[in-house]
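Researcher: Please translate sequence to structure tokens.
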Amino acid sequence: MVKSIIYTLVAAALCAGFFIFTEIYVSQQFSYVYGAAEELYLKVEEGEATASDAEAVSLLWEDKKSKLHVFIPHNDIAQIDYYLTEAGGHIRDGEYGLALSKLEVVKHLALSLPSAYSVRLENVF
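Model: Translation complete:
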């Protein structure tokens, strides 16, 4: 009986530790993506963004998404891929207004996705 209680408490503590780690890790990864998208957004606003700037943000995202596939579904990751690719194309074509709108979506997704997968009451029920 005592062993069962101890095992249950240990399992609950391990689960809580994993949930806390996941929340911190996912939030940290998306904060890097948000920062890079914000920096690119500011460069686009000033008209100073180049294709290599967009590619640098895409490379950062490629690195982050390879680790995030474990924690969040492919569809949410694909959305960021899609909008970053579109923004990069618009930057290459010099269509800065369209690139700004795509980067705005990337920034919003980078802010909202971590909270969508955190352990909260509204996400559980």
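Researcher: Any highlights?
Model: The helical segments are 2-46, 51-68, 74-93, 96-116, 121-124.
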